[in-house]
Design goal:
With about 375 residues, the protein is mainly alpha-helical. It is about 70% helix and about 0% strand.
């Protein structure tokens, strides 16, 4: 019973999320739909694992070629999903080239299995994969299938490194892009994108380790099998849950970027634009708008948002989001130090200065000041006494 639970849990997790993401009402969110494809592919992968560990020889020999396809597809599909989050607004069929190794090797493997005699298939399974018959007859078909096996593992290891690097670049670029457009990142899922990267790293490390160790070592030890089962079940559930909760993609960013008016564009030199920007924030307190976007700032200044973004990046050495939050924190500090407002709640102050939530206010305040606003208030009151 316990062994069955260990074997089947990754299957249950991936099948659950594949159904939820593929068939629930998610407002035509392409990234979510595609994550469902990734989860279903992972389900087939863990189904083949289950057949192997349950030693269902007929089922596994049928699924072995599918296993090869799925094992070489999960990371390309995962990377494709990240592209739909960060840079692509439609299903780009050019990405199918990423699946070429999976398609080719699975077809080759299936062709070899077809030409194998039933005795050769059993020798390959028990003699090579399970290492239970060291004296098996090493025929040409078995040698070819072994070659496919080793090539598959080598390509898998390369994929992990390649897609990790490429995925990290996409995430980093996307993070910078939204930080330079929105003042409030809470609803723009930058936290999710970061966590996606971390889960990608953890999954990659675990995949490489267990790919090197091989599955045969876990055949006779349920307790050893718990380790990969638990790691992959937790990470895949995490990816599925966060992917389901995530509603903002590059499509939404592009839609917001189109909303700026192109009328009344004025030209300023760097100094003039900086003075007008500071006046807008210090005197106009435009940062109090909790959903402030850089397009709204540029419209107030009657200039292009790219000029404003470049000015903030170069003159103030920060992103638009950081620039806005610094002004919010400065006013929050002034409110905390104001005797008239000393009894006002932190929640009131956070809303007054433009933060979308108290949690965001506390997190940003601590990042900038090195302490929470509550501690800042306590320290100020102690100094007053």
């Amino acid at each position: 019973m316990f062994r069955d639970l260990v074997i089947y849990t990754p299957m249950y997790v991936t099948f659950f999320w594949s159904i939820v993401l593929l068939f629930s009402n998610i407002n035509n969110n392409k990234a979510k739909r595609f994550l469902g494809v990734f989860m279903f592919t992972a389900f087939l992968l863990y189904l083949s694992h289950a057949l192997f560990f349950k030693q269902n020889e007929k089922g596994y020999l049928v699924f072995d070629s599918i296993y090869i396809f799925c094992s070489l597809s999960v990371y390309p599909l995962y990377y494709w999903y990240i592209k739909l989050l960060t840079i692509e607004t439609k299903y780009n069929l050019k990405n199918l080239i990423l699946l070429a190794p999976a398609i080719i090797l699975s077809i080759v493997s299936a062709a070899i299995y077809i030409t194998m005699r039933s005795e050769e298939r059993l020798d390959y399974l028990y003699g090579f994969l399970m290492e239970r018959n060291p004296e098996f007859q090493n025929t040409l078909n078995i040698r070819l299938q072994k070659a496919v096996f080793y090539i598959t593992r080598a390509i898998f290891a390369i994929q992990v490194i390649y897609f990790l690097i490429r995925g990290r670049r996409l995430v980093s670029t996307y993070n910078n892009r939204i930080a330079n457009f929105y003042s409030n990142l809470e609803s723009r899922t930058i936290v999710w994108v970061n966590l996606l990267l971390y889960s990608f790293v953890l999954t990659s490390i675990a995949s490489v380790i267990f790919n090197i160790i091989g599955r045969d070592i876990f055949l006779n030890s349920t307790y050893l099998l718990v380790i990969p089962s638990f790691i992959f079940s937790v990470l895949l559930f995490f990816i599925g849950f966060q992917g389901y909760m995530q509603n903002h993609t590059v499509e939404d960013l592009l839609e917001d970027e189109k909303q700026q008016s192109t009328e009344k564009i004025k030209e300023y030199n760097q100094k003039q634009l900086k003075q007008k920007l500071e006046h807008l924030f210090i005197t106009g307190k435009i940062y109090r708008n909790p959903d402030l976007k850089i397009t709204q700032v540029s419209e107030k200044l009657q200039t292009n948002r790219t000029y404003v973004s470049n000015l903030i990046n170069t003159e103030f050495s920060c992103s638009f989001n950081d620039f806005v939050n610094k002004h919010r924190i400065e006013e929050a500090k002034s409110m905390i130090e104001n005797d008239i407002l000393k009894d006002y709640s932190l929640n009131y102050i956070s809303e007054a200065v433009g933060f979308g939530s108290l949690n965001t206010f506390i997190r940003v305040f601590k990042e900038i000041e090195g302490m929470t606003p509550g501690n800042f208030r306590n320290r100020f009151q102690m100094n007053q006494y």
